[in-house]
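Hi R.,

Here's the chain you asked about this morning:
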Amino acid sequence: MFITPAFAQSGGFAEGGFGLLPILFVMVIFYFLLIRPQQKRAKQHREMLAAIRRGDKIVTSGGLTGTVVKVTEDSDTVEVEIAKDVKVHVVRAMIADIRGKTEPAKKA
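And here is the predicted structure, written out as tokens:
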């Protein structure tokens, strides 16, 4: 009634099959411009947190700076000295950057 017989007989896939290509193209662009770089940054951050040692100067995500005093491998916190004789426990995930890296301890 509302559709003419000539229009109703035309192949739907021939006209609309390429409608998915722009969507797939946008998804590929999102992957390479947004998702993949974010995954790389997250991996670098995890590696940085795993490499924290005593004596490293760090910056927390809240903006506090300090020196790592104690690192326990099985704990999710590190002890940081933010001022003379002022020590706080900081969750590892909240460490934003390592500003000063110390040399590894020499084994005697």
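One quick note: Strands lie at 57-60, 65-71, 77-83, 86-91, 95-100.

Cheers,
M.
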